[in-house]
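Posting for a labmate who doesn't have an account.
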Amino acid sequence: MSGGARLENANPVIFQRSGERLLTASEEDEDVHDPIDDREIFDILSHLIRSINDPEHPLSLEELNVVEQVRVKVDDAGSTVGVEFTPTIPHCSMATLIGLSIKVKLLRSLPDRFKIDVHISPGTHASEEAVNKQLADKERVAAALENSSLLEVVNQCLSSRTM
């Protein structure tokens, strides 16, 4: 959140965080093959996506309902992860940054075999097509991550905040 800047959504609706999933003994056993599923990605997101900080507010993306477990799709056998996110307002100028933060968190956390698709929930943003195009373009994402100023902002979104 930048100091002194006017907030686009000064009074966002805040949602309660969902509880942590209890792990079974077989899920904790590293010798047992445990397919990755949507809840695991969301829990990873608990440490990955759920806890990503909104660039504008001192709240997580889960608390703003930008990310929800029902919008995470995982195909472990096909090595794909899809995350749909919903900006808090239709003209959110932070949508690309939020999507990039989600994508970076997953790229850093998941095995390399996974193809990651991060996109805006259909019909929830005025520039949905343009933002989705940017997030799907590997070269644009790579170029964005080479920009030290932008990378610093992404890392701030990904850093843990004390609530």
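Reply:
Got it, the structure tokens are right above this. The two ends are 15 Å apart (CA to CA).
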